[in-house]
Each structure stands twice: as structure tokens, then as C-alpha cells.
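Postdoc handover notes: sequence design on the structure in folder B. Input C-alpha cells:
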């Protein structure tokens, strides 16, 4: 009996016991009944489950060659702390993250050399055009915001990314339900059947990107994905001419947690698509084991615009390779209130018309 009391109900988590009247295990909380064989198999699965093992082999990126950084300069923003890299011909500039002036620090040194770079494919004009398209069909966008936007200050920045490769072995367990409904002359019936659905297999990941800049929000960079790595080339400093480059301040080791989150979610989503034919499917256990995990360092092209309206900072980012642009826009509360007032007037007029028509009838 003590052993039976250790079983937990897969449906509600309550302790279950053997019911001699039906010769089955039964939960006293949700009244779910279980065959002994099915429950024993479920218990074996629980005992075999293991925690995630998501370790990466983070090798150091190559060092800069002698004389390779002679034409590079570093700039520091005293407002947000961002450190960027430019060539020796870069004039006085502003921070691409907050828009404030930056101070030249001198000769570049100290960062690892990138393995790869995806060159800019779209120019500043394309970025301006994309931003203008972003404004269209936005009836509540403040006119002042649009007029005062510093469009000429759009900056091309090579953003540092850590690219993670790995093979994942995954074992997942889902709780699924099927529902059957029927009626007779007296009652309506609903029968819910619960299932433990197991999935296991392997999935490969190549170049899972995690941006290496604390100044750049992860969700913003993920929103302009994907980048087409087939157009990446071995890094050369010549690609930095005319652009800024962000100096990474989040190293590969610090980026592992974010990489694990992305790998685990992608694994769950991929395996979840194979579970079909159920009303509901909820993940209960996910075990991911990584093999041959490695990280590489690359620079990806991004056009960035920061602007402020009524004390709030708005950041826009455009993929410098594909043209995908994202960014939040402010709402003119006055225009929105006017729209609501007009909509309420239309609804009121329609209600009055219907009432008058019904009175006539």
C-alpha cells in the first residue's frame, strides 16, 4: 500500500490509490481511473527522465593579425556606455543606440577577431524607404513625430553575433486529451480521455544566433531574422569601411543561456508539430542532450535609428541584408480619441436608426 500511495495522478497531480470495487487505480480528487498496466508504464517513464544537458565547447575566436587593426578606431558613448568601432576616416559621429555624441578613444585593441561577416547588401536610402513604408497606414501616428524624425541619422552597424552549432537528442512527454460528447433524453455527457504522449529523436542546429551586444535588445535582433548565412564571407577589415561596428561586450560563455533557450524552444516546437489528433497538448517534460556544441563569432549588418518623442525612446532596426524592418511607433492619443468619438457617433446613429425603424414597424 505504501508503494501505491507514491503514484501521482497524471491529470491533477493528486495522490491516487487502488479502488477494490473497480479493480483500478483511482484519483479521489478528479475521479480519473487508471489501468494498473498503464500507470506502471507511466511511472517507469518518469523514473527514466533525466535533466537537460546543454553544454557547449566555446573555443576562442582567432586573434587579430599584426597590423590588421591599424586603421580602426574605437568610440565611447558616455551616455549609454556603448563602445563602437569605426575606421580612421570616421568623422565626429553619434551613438547608434541612443543618438548622443560619442568620444573617440584611440587605436582599437582587445577584442577577438570575427570569423565571418555578412556584408551590407542594402544602403541608407533603402533603410529610409523602409522606414517611410513603416509609417504608412498608421492613422494614429503623431504628425510631429514623423516630421521631427532624424531620418538622416540612420546608421549602418555591424552587430556582433555568436553562432551556435549543435546536435540535440531530445525526449519529450506531453499530456494530451481527447473529448467525446453525447446526450440522451435526460442529460448531456462529456468524457475526457487523458494520454501521455512520448516523442524522441534528434535534431540538428546550425548557426543559432545570439547577439553579443548588451546595448542591443535580444528581441529586437531576433525580430529582424533570419540572416542568410550563405552570403557570409571570411572576415576582412575592408568590409568595415563606411560603417560602424559594435564591439561585443557579451562573450560566448555569457551567451550560452540565451542559446539554450532558443535551442530548447525550437526543439519543443518541432516535436510538438508531430503530436496531432488531440484536443489539447501540454508539454510536461523536456529532456535535451547536446552533442558537439560549438560557437563562432560573426558580424551581421543592421541599420539602426533611435529617436525620442515626449521623453520616450523609439528604436528601429532593419536587416541590412534582407530589408526586414521592425520598431514600435507612438500613438497620438488625441487622434485616437477623435477616432473613438467618431466611431461612437456612427454606432449611436446606427442604433437610433434601428430603433426608429422598429418603432415604424
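Designed sequence:
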Amino acid at each position: 500500500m505504501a508503494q501505491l500511495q507514491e503514484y501521482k495522478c497524471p491529470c491533477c497531480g493528486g495522490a491516487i490509490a487502488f479502488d477494490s470495487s473497480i479493480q483500478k487505480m483511482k484519483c479521489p480528487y478528479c475521479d480519473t481511473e487508471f489501468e494498473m498496466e498503464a500507470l506502471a508504464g507511466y511511472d517507469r517513464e518518469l523514473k527514466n527522465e533525466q535533466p537537460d544537458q546543454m553544454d557547449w565547447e566555446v573555443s576562442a575566436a582567432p586573434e587579430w593579425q599584426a597590423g590588421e587593426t591599424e586603421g580602426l578606431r574605437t568610440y565611447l558613448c558616455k551616455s549609454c556606455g556603448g563602445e563602437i568601432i569605426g575606421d580612421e576616416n570616421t568623422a565626429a559621429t553619434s551613438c547608434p543606440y541612443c543618438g548622443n555624441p560619442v568620444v573617440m578613444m584611440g587605436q582599437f585593441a582587445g577584442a577577438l577577431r570575427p570569423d565571418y561577416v555578412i556584408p551590407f547588401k542594402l544602403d541608407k536610402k533603402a533603410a529610409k524607404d523602409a522606414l517611410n513604408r513603416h509609417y504608412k497606414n498608421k492613422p494614429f501616428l503623431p504628425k510631429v513625430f514623423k516630421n521631427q524624425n532624424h531620418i538622416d541619422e540612420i546608421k549602418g552597424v555591424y552587430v556582433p553575433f555568436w553562432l551556435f552549432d549543435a546536435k540535440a537528442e531530445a525526449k519529450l512527454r506531453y499530456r494530451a486529451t481527447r473529448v467525446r460528447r453525447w446526450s440522451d433524453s435526460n442529460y448531456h455527457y462529456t468524457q475526457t480521455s487523458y494520454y501521455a504522449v512520448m516523442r524522441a529523436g534528434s535534431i540538428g542546429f546550425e548557426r543559432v544566433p545570439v547577439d553579443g551586444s548588451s546595448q542591443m535588445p535580444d528581441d529586437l535582433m531576433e525580430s529582424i531574422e533570419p540572416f542568410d548565412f550563405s552570403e557570409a564571407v571570411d572576415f576582412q577589415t575592408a568590409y568595415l569601411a563606411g560603417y560602424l561596428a559594435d564591439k561585443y561586450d557579451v562573450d560566448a560563455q555569457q551567451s550560452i543561456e540565451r542559446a539554450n533557450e532558443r535551442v530548447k524552444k525550437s526543439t519543443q516546437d518541432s516535436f510538438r508539430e508531430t503530436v496531432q489528433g488531440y484536443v489539447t497538448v501540454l508539454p510536461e517534460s523536456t529532456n535535451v542532450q547536446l552533442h558537439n556544441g560549438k560557437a563562432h563569432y560573426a558580424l551581421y549588418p543592421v541599420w539602426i535609428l533611435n529617436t525620442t518623442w515626449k521623453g520616450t525612446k523609439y528604436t528601429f532596426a532593419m536587416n541590412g541584408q534582407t530589408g526586414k524592418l521592425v520598431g514600435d511607433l507612438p500613438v497620438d492619443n488625441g487622434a485616437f480619441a477623435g477616432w473613438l468619438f467618431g466611431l461612437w457617433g456612427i454606432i449611436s446613429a446606427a442604433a437610433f436608426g434601428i430603433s426608429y425603424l422598429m418603432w415604424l414597424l
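Context for whoever picks this up: The helical segments are 36-48, 124-135, 143-148, 218-223, 252-272, 333-360. Don't rerun without checking with the PI first.
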